[in-house]
Amino acid sequence: METKEANTSKYLREPVSIYSLAGFRVLFGLCMVLSTLRFIGLDWVEDHYLNSDFHFHYYGFAWVKALAPSIMTLLHYVLILSSLGVMLGFYYRISAIVQFVLFTYFELIDLTYYLNHYYYVSLVCFLLIFVPANRAFSLDTAWRKLKPYSHVPRYIPGMFMLLMGIVYTYAGIAKINPEWLFNAQPLRIWLPASYDVPVLGNFFAWKYSPWLFAWAGMLYDCSIFFLLLNKKTRPWAYASVILFHSLTGILFQIGVFPVVMMAGTLIFFSAEWHLRWMRWVKPNYHVEYAAWQPKVWIKKPLEWGLAAFFAIQLLFPWRFILYPGNFHWTENAYRFGWRVMLVEKAGTATFYIKDDQGREGMVDNRDYLNKHQEKQMSYQPDMLLQFAHFLGEQAKAKGIENPEVRAEVYVTYNGRPSALFIDSTVNLLALSDSWKAKDWIKPYPF
Amino acid sequence: MSKLKYSIGILSLGLLLGLGSCSDDKPDEPTGSFDRATLLTDIAEQYILPGFDSLYSKQQVAHRALQSMVAVPNQANLLWLQDQWKSSFLAYQQVRMFNFGPGEKSIYGEMDENMATYPVNTDSIQARIARGDLNTNDFRRDTRGYLALDYLLFTATVDSFNSISFKNYVNAVSLDLFNWADELKSGWQAYASDFRSSTDKGAGSSTSELYNHFLQSFEDLKNYELGLPAGLMAGQTQVEPQLVQAYYSGYSIPLLKAHFKAIEDLWKGTGAGQQNIIGFKEYLETVVGGTDLILATESQIAAVQTALNALPNQSKLSDLIQQDLEAVKTAHTEIQKLTRFLKSDLSSLLGIAITYSSGDGD
Asked: CA A185, A189, A191, A193: dihedral to nearest 10 degrees?
């Protein structure tokens, strides 16, 4: 066993060519620049962060607040600059730190806009801080004369491959359930709605397509990491990456995600491949052999830190096992687990505030929430609870000493008739969010 | 290459299993294909355009009635004018949910805010009359529109029309409504082809806009036409009958019923001439789970109808709230029960992006 362990750790530390890492840095930075420009261009800075009286916070991150409008817009331009810095490898370390901090800050402001791919982007931004991705094909080496390296330990590019492998494989495992595979839901709702796409529309509307897509999607997600790792299958695998993400891009409103994944999976390509396009950009580009090693004082913390990071990544999505009930329904432990495009849910949430005299009145959610917020809140229990507490504070501010807030919430799951989601008699102000299971959620009714 | 073969093997096995698993499906399984273009064309041509045509002609008659009253103030002309106001505002109920496209032309707010804000601010109206302020292009939407006329025409006597400043103000408000009706009619004629051709399912597509405004209008009806005056909203400590729509004319109940009928018609697919057209219901017939939702929705619509029928047309809603609050509450409750069928369940099954400017999903 000892030798095996020693071999593994030796294998992970072996020097490998740096170019796939540097290429990944360039492409990822570019995606960040483009997606932030798109975000600004669509006026989403205003729509997401500035036009609401109330923001849903992440558990433990209630202290993260949106800043003044002009500052929020400015910060998005700073994010673009930092991503340019990452892409070009210019003042790379500080750029990578700023990129991670700003992007993650924007995500933490409002839980409404949580997306698995934003979470993935945040994690990649974090890892980029710790790697020498700027030591080849960068302005730091060309202009700032930092020492160029041709090789890095295998685990350095490897961590980005592993993270991508976790994203895909966990997304695939999440699809292994009867609802997805045998009922072909929610694809039976989603696919026919795209009947009018040119050329492919008839195929999407074909009776058996939901099952075809459900199985193909599951098999793709479960196997793509391994097929990308293997040199022989890699070209075929990448062709399927293009096909899969093009299709999902056509079918769903998922923004830049397909592009990020199509660009990101190129990290599996050989260093020679990356060197080829780099030489197309910069003819005769060449680096003398030099193997980068982390400085002695950081080596252990870095390696252990990475081990801990990936242990958490591997384990955290499984926490749903600790909770009772169907987590597709309860949403307990649903987030941060790569459950991508897995269910179709919508809710109708009506809140009632009771005043000190026992008089109860209905809330018009539109008075406080935008459409996106209301839609997301209406089937996610922690958000329902947050909004109830916000309403309680509003009532107190209006002079009601002991308000009670309850909510009548109906949720539809994969097209089934909506059912009562939480106990509509419970005073939500008497509850607080925690890691514990929420026993005020009604059992899965279908 | 063995791994490649292996993966191809898995893939084909998966496809076989996948196809096999649906071999036992029911014969009445929906086909899953629905032509949104037909929905949009039917609704544009047989619902929206005739609706705005009708609004235009009704408001034209109403404005002429006002001009007659201004020229020859007498009791007969006043009654005729009041009737024409009712008829025009009734016609408006059929189109008030189409608060987009040409309805967004003004920088001072959407169509419904400009034409039908209530309660109006009577002090501001009186102040404007006193200083001869006839401007209808500002954010003081509570001094104009149908409900300003509700106040002015139904508190007025023949005598009021002897005042030049009163006459001028009433005329300005009525003319503004006529101009809106005119521009909405021509605006929709021009916009209809864009509306019909935006057949995708994304945010901002016609189906998404249509659905969103349909739902908003329904929520407005529930919360503002009934909930607020009946004292059922959060923060209220008592009934507030003066908050009903059309308080002064007391015409709230026919208006409420017409508004609900418009929503019901769009869902069921009933055109402006009561002919059968494609509505959300036909859309639902083609999707998995749609039949159940149709049954649930129709039965709840029937319950709403029963509750609304219990509110007599000739009664004033503001009086009813004080005399028979239970009947009003029942109507509100039944409408509330309908909400989830129109909101979460319908939007989910339609498979369209229902958020506005949206953001992405994953």
From this structure: -170
